[in-house]
Amino acid sequence: MNRKKYPPDWKSIALAVKDKADWTCQECQRPCRRPNESWDEFKYRLAKKSKALYLECCEKKIRFVLTTAHLDHDTTNNAASNLKALCSVSAIILATLSSIIL
Ligand SMILES: [Zn+2]
């Protein structure tokens, strides 16, 4: 991520998108770790929801990190309709599909 390509207030823009999505991936509905939530706290919360997700998190916790994606890949287009909260898995799928289509 090249920070120079993002607006100075990107951190707060991205945080607002993630908060609005309730820290859940808007593509695959995967719950993601919230800020200031330890991995142990998060895994406990996950275990109450789904044993499969808990086990997956123990194996690959990076999959439970929420990102804010620009759907058109233009980091200057910060319109709400262009931003989506995606888990790292969904973000990679979006990037891969976009590179195939473009
Ligand atoms: Zn996802």
In short:
44% of the residues lie in helices and 10% in strands. It has 102 residues and is mainly α. The two termini are 20 Å apart.
List keywords for this structure.
102 residues, mainly alpha, 4 helices, binds zinc ion
Report on the structure:
The protein is mainly alpha-helical and 102 residues long. The protein has one domain (3-101). The chain is 44% helix and 10% strand. The protein has helices at residues 10-20, 39-49, 51-59, 88-101, and strands at 66-70, 83-87. It has a two-stranded antiparallel sheet with strand order 1-2. Helix 2 (39-49) packs antiparallel against helix 3 (51-59). The longest helix is centred in the last third of the chain and has 14 residues, at 88-101. The mean pLDDT is 93. Residues 25, 27-28, 30, 86-87, 89-90 line the site of zinc ion (ZN).
The structure class reads mainly alpha
Determine the strand fraction and express it as a percent band: 5-15%
- List how many beta strands DSSP finds: 2
Q: How many independent structural domains? A: 1
pLDDT average, as an integer? 93
Number of helices: 4
Strand order of the main beta sheet, please? 1-2
| Ligand roster | zinc ion
CA radius of gyration is: 14 Å
| Inertia-based shape | globular
Instruction: Determine the fraction of residues in helical runs and give it as a percent range.
Output: 40-55%
Order of helices and strands: HHHEEH
Instruction: Summarize the main sheet.
Output: 2 strands, antiparallel
Distance between the termini: 20 Å
Low-confidence stretches: none
